[in-house]
Please model this.
Amino acid sequence: MGDAERACVELAAVVDAQTRILGAGHTMTLRSKSALGEALAAMGDLDGARAQLEAVLAASSELEPFDIASSHERLAVVLMRLCDFAGSLRQAELAFELRHEISGEDHMNTLTALGNLACMHRNVGNHDEAHRLIMRFVSIALRDPRRFSNVSVRRTLATWLAYSYSDGLGPEFLPLLPALQAGWFQTGAMSDGSDESVIAVFLFHRVAAAIRFEGGLLAEALHSLGFVEQMLERTPGLAEFAKNGLASTCPALVGGLAKIRKVLRVWRQFALDSGK
Model:
């Protein structure tokens, strides 16, 4: 029995016991049901996860707003995986509204919910609204560099940088790249060693290299390219993501690295020769 399956079995037993002792509508029972829904989703039982989470939200009057927001977020992910993008967007909207009401705009949970909402808008084709929301996300993130220590923030920024580049909006991010990169360095959070964090760092520098190159900032592009090449050399498996994973995240970046590398090296040699 794998970890995900074991977690489902254990949580199902907890829910069963709490239902018998406390009742199906008790706060603790509903919290356990929400956790069970997340565990079922991790195991791939999306219909079962949806049923659990919808049951929780149907009885949400017994829950604290924080618990309700968490369940909306979990259901949004499940519905997205079920390709119910409109339903997923609605759940993400409800989650963001609650997070904003509970904690305010600057809280990390609200910022994460904002990034999720932007993704859901993009999924249904609302590209203008998605872009507006992610620029709001970036503005909030830059208010406090400590936010860059959160892996969710780093992943969202890197992914949206790639999305924006694919959508032809890379130039809008060009003036923001120094501040974004500085935020990551200031927190010592370029990577915490997890696969998710490593990919976020790689993606950020890979897109930054392309945006800076196309924007004519060749020295800065060369700097970003240096990070990309170092990571490819040091991180097993990253080359596979660079070859295949980018195809789904940012098709415009697949290939093209050799061209950038060649042009930048010629430019660097020219600069060195000119300085003699």
